[in-house]
């Protein structure tokens, strides 16, 4: 069913109030993982508790342990949980967001104070501020939905549970254990889940996101001499670790982006016709990615191949070398030990373990071929599995209808090239279908200077979140 017209009108009539709510949230510099801002992160949790309670939500903070910041043991930011509604005839919906943000300083290159929500003076409707789109804007969107229903005296069409964490920007430390501890408690009985912590592919087309690539991060360390050597004295007489490392790293990926590690390509799940159709329908132009990277350096000029390379297929990226001389000037040193760092973005069928088996086997075999007397060690430093949801699930069908209702156009169905580890935690532990329902645009600049959210996206995003709940209430689970 379409959203209650009174709800939609309330959102339009209270734009200024909703922007004020976002302004108050942005002004709290809730930077996680930084000792200087510990109190501010706690203040943001208190802000949410106050807001939720005033809006009729049964809300509380839950402690989830402690961690170390610059040598000092401090409490992890609490998880804020809330619930409203317990009608057994209604669907049970869980929503997630995070209230912490990335660091930001004016001197980093911001045009405005990062912790002051600043409307674009040119009148574009852009609202600049750290956290405006990642993720305080979407979290405030859920609060806006609650306010509209409370003030109008209308019951929500579903039973709603909320979980907002304060460590997402610092690895969601402790959240997986909290989810596990509450899977038969607070999280029990949920039908589906919605996360709004990603973005449209472009600036014009709303989307629903049903997949994320995973990641394996590796370190290849080559060690030989017990100390750094002078190249004038020892050059030409020893196996040099840097030379060995370059030889190994050059055999990982081709200039065309092809992963050269045997066995990886064979593990990838074949493209289905449904996937192909979804990629072909995505509104995307090569100019979009050219603008994003600052030049025409794409491997392919085919839009579908480019989108699959970004979202659906694995990729191998070389990130850097540790232990090498990098300061300005000239230094004739032979490093005693160097480490090359690279990662592989994972996709369905290409998991942490089977990928690592291929990587270890290949690198060890290639190193043996060098005939070097140095020592080679390969380590998986961290990994996260890929995630994919069923885009034909009733939750996605409801979101599709809500998008058409609010934006007057059908959404693209996208997959993200990066990872949102918390999505996998919820999916694996709770066994729920998870919908990624973005509010912001592709040019919002999350994590960057001059992060922003457009007023139209913030307000229409509030309508979208509310309309999704209405469509979800009406749709069949079949």
From TrEMBL:
Binds 2 manganese ions per subunit. Gene3D superfamilies: 3.30.70.360, Zn peptidases. Its cofactor is Mn(2+). The active site is at residues 100, 168. This is Peptidase M20 dimerisation domain-containing protein. GO terms for molecular function: metal ion binding; metallodipeptidase activity. Belongs to the peptidase M20A family. Substrate binds at residues 197, 230, 332, 345, 419, 447. Residues 210-368 form the Peptidase M20 dimerisation domain. Keywords: Hydrolase, Manganese, Metal-binding, Metalloprotease, Protease. Mn(2+) 2 binds at residues 98, 134, 197.
